[in-house]
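Handout, section 4.2: multi-component inputs.
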Amino acid sequence: MNEMDNKWIGKNTIRPDGADKVTGRAEYAADTIMPGMIWGKVLRSPHPHATIKSINTKKAEKLDGVFSVATSADCVDFPVDTPVILGIQDIRWMARNVLAKEKVLFHGHPIAAVAARTEEIAEKACELIEVDYDVHPWAIEIDDAIKPDAPILHDFIKFDGKPSNIVGTLEHKKGNIEEGFKDADIIIEKEFETAAVHQGYLETHACLVSVSPDDKTIIWSSSQGQFMVRAMTSFITGIPQSSIRAIPAEIGGGFGGKTIVYLEPVATILSKKSGRPVKMVMTREEVMRASGPTSGSKSKVKIGAKNDGKITAAQGTFYLQAGAFPGAPIRGAAGCCLAPYDIPNAHTFGYDVVSNRSKVAAYRAPGAPIGAYAVECVIDEVAEALKICPLEFRLKNAAKQGTKAVHGPTYPVMGYVETLEACLSHPHYKAPLKKLQGRGYASGFWFNAGGESSAQVNITEDGNVVVTTGHPDIGGSRASIANITAELLGIDVNRVSVLIGDTASIGFSNLTGGSRVLFASALVVTESTNQVIDILKDRASKIWNIDKEAIEWENGQARPAGDNAGKFKPLTLVELAEKATPTGGPIGAGHQVNTVGAEGGFATHICDVEVDIELGIARVIRYTAAQDVGKAIHPAYVEGQLQGGVVQGIGWALNEEYIYNKEGKLDNPGFLDYRIPVCSDLPMIDTILVEVPNPKHPQGVRGVGEVPIVPPLSAIANAIYNAIGTRFYSLPMSPPKILEKISD
Amino acid sequence: MAKIQVKTKINGEETEFLCQPYDTVLDVLRKDLNMTGTKEVCSTGDCGACSITMDGRLVCSCLVLAAETEDKNIETIEGMAKNGKFNVLQKTFLEHAALQCGICTPGMLVAAKSLLEKNTNPTETEIRYWLAGNLCRCTGYDKIVKAVQAAAEEIRENA
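Output:
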């Protein structure tokens, strides 16, 4: 299809869910109600690390207004030594994170839950539950968790033959690292650390669950995957998946943090035991204390280069916090960190470290910002030492089509170089700076993903279109799907309605995550729509009594082609729908497949900061993000992904951090003390959408959601150095840290 | 504890409800009146998602006790579209892609409307500081600020 012919792809249409969201009609999980509904609350651990000797719920059960109580004794028992893998999660850990079993492993770890007539009664009943603990020493920071006499969280997990809090490792190797460093004229090695940060989705976790006496279960919840909710709830409660209908409510932000369950299995148990629908809504404090942030980290990066600017070797070692259970995103750190570069000799290591913090969850390009932060800061130092412009230095070492990446693949068609060139030719690159202002650059990569996806495209009796997919829409995917369907059918986009099906109404579709949704769902929607067009041609062939092959579909009409051209008046979608019954019945088609062919995404960012040396505040005053987006199906929402990701990165770089006190408890579990960027902190975020279409996708789509959070951490660190001549090796670069360094 | 009877006006409609002395306006809106357009995000006045106006003043409904609304005029997101027609801000938010997940949107719209009622020609800085109490984690605020600017322009043109 000629680009100029596109009517809807590439257009900023109004999102199908927009009217509901600007009027308050959109239904999020906490907005749902059912007759007879009662409220569930969770009792949480007051200790960061303790063995549970006993739990006595008798007093709570007797309190007036209490309907049911749940503990891990009500869950399916998964022995600690046998993995139960579901996607990237292990149900052994998930079950114990939902309701603690042998031990509590962090302050705020759920122990029991109560369902009662009101939230207040449920809270009172939680206080009546008696738990006998054997309290243990705890470890919060990585250094404390990996020292020789550290308190061990899971003594059955061994590293180097001994019980350890290092619960997983990963490495990527290419070439000969020793030879590579021998060839270098200059070698720079630095150590870095980053604080744990929360996804900060505004909607707290919530669900409403109703279980019938024969276990038929309906779950309304806010998640990044209704099928994930169904599967995990099924595992933990023992109710078969066929009996569970998980309905995706609108989701008020996830960013990876809603790819696992916290409340749904608990509410299911409480509802099953009480016979009443149970609603549970976390408070902000519960979200901060007990839902997954992403890892804090410690890392070391060493890069060697020749005087001519070619990198000869690079090495990175990354220790990432997993929280209470294994599963730190070491693949994102060790796998993505060198991805933008063509480096002959490289070696990266990742270490998955458990400690007495809440279990980490995915956060936008999990692990990748941590890896890129260290690498991109050292790249900046090497470029400076070689007196080469940091963007030119990256260009000289840029990975291209055919480059063998350190993390394994040989790259196909990709647009990293184009992002560098776009930055070099952008006015921002040459704009003048004032005193105490500085400019920084950084690049970033994310794998992107495909995976299972299902779609159904149905023609209504009046000749309009309903598309159903199985992925919760967290960034505007419904708008993009509407654009694609309207384009393929040649009809007005307003005739296409796009819905997210529940687990009983659409085939299995994997999580909304990994920047996979539009890639995957566009593939299955395209295939389904093409099947529908084939059916429509078949119906026209029956009406005209000519071969189907002699009919073409154009501008929403079947028209006779070839020898028959002009013989019959074209039949519109509306006319064919009216004649559906006599020509063969309902018109619709579905497709479900494990999608493949997702290709990685690259970005390069330019950031200007101004540092107030009296207050220690670094303020971002200009920002430009260039990214290879493949093909922007709905450009405004693609820009929105870039802008949102950048600003989350700005928060990570400058302010956000989990602060623990001496008792092993989180000290800042709310938006007052955990400060995410606000409107007055920021400039406009400029975007450059570089379009190098993914050849393995019908519309050329690449995932776009995750890459933009990868470069900002180092772009800002490099900009602050450029402004005041001081390098920071620890995030966040918050006012106290900046003041301390300046006064040194 | 005896409940308090409160008579107030919500979006122009006379409304009566019973509440506990400790119930907030947000509690009553969401749990008793099923007006769930106003969102609960932090419950501590830090995020602005529950923004409403009370006698024309922008407030966090999680910080106002329900009993204090006696004889007041409350405006919520549910009252923003009139007679089935969007308010200009609702329209520009849609046109400028100023929302993603949408959970901050009701509060953001109520706050922005309150600004434009006072100032139809705010600078970018004035918009950014007025909305500094309304958190958004999806958009980076860029398109929200542009949507407010566009609405202000439209209001000025139609004045």
